[in-house]
Amino acid sequence: MVVVLRPGTSQEKIEHLTRWLEEKQLIVREYQGGEQCVLGLIGDTAGIDVDMIRSLDIVESVSETREPFKAPNRAMHPDDTVISTFPGGPKIGGGHFALIAGPCSVESREQLFYIADKIQAAGANFIRGGAFKPRTSPYDFQGLGAEGLELLLQVKKETGLPIVTELMDIRSIELFQEVDVIQVGARNTQNYDLLRELGKLQNPILLKRGLAGTIKELLMSAEYIMASGNENVILCERGIRTYESAYTRNTLDLSAVPVLKNLTHLPVVVDPSHGTGRADLVPAMALAAAAAGADGLMIEVHNDPPRALSDGAQSLTPEQFAELAPKIFKVREAVQTCK
Length: 339
Ligand code: PEP
Ligand code: MN
Fold this sequence. Notes:
Layout: E1 2-5, H1 11-23, E2 27-33, E3 36-42, H2 50-55, E4 59-63, E5 83-84, E6 91-92, E7 98-102, H3 109-122, E8 126-128, H4 146-159, E9 163-166, E10 181-184, H5 192-198, E11 205-208, H6 215-227, E12 233-237, H7 256-263, E13 268-270, H8 272-276, H9 282-291, E14 296-300, H10 318-338
């Protein structure tokens, strides 16, 4: 339920109403947008006398949110959420664009530092790299683990680029304290115990859409993190499993971008690398995602794709990335001038 208060309502009156609602076992989220205050009520609102609330002199309107996701719902927070990294670092959402690039897996110090240098020169403002890798086969490269994470932290120190890396297991959470954006991979999107634990942190979480996940399921997973106290959630469309398997690895659902932008206030990032599985398709889909209004892109870049230890087929070379990045910025500009 969403309660919109009249402009200029005093903080004292807002707090009074909030306390009363909290006594009814509801979670109350207060959103201030300019003069207007919106209270989002989460929980069982069945016992609430809506007409009574509507009749209060400080209340402008009351509406029900029919969708099962509450905290990510745009009705609760009409403006786009802007997610910050470290002080002075890049932001994402509300007009701030994240160009996240880097290898699928961190393979060595040399590899990571080389790629970091190239992508930063091309305009990337975040670096990605997996240290703990979710691989389909247990015999494939599983990532460098803690050593890979240490390399990422070093590259951040050297370049100033915030890092994005995947947490697979809650038991390694201690190692992730300094990670700027913690990725929840497609295979873990519905690992609710993991999501609850991530909700106890304040690090931004990049939540990928599940392998065959619906948009609603993605938003319900975001709800788990937010309901546990972490509002810093970034949604990521990374393609879903469909009947096509011959020519693309996944089917990148770009319609999810405007759908999500409409339903939620959270930033939306697109990953055209996993979304297609093919480096030759990445540029077109990256530009299409920017045109669709994405708040960011996550693109795999490898210094030597044929020899990559994971996802070489979908990785751009640094040169290909450098050719693509200015085109992405041009599309962004065009989209903004079209608004
Ligand atoms: C990745 O980003 O390298 C990754 C494994 O992603 P996903 O969870 O989308 O497959
Ligand atoms: Mn990958």
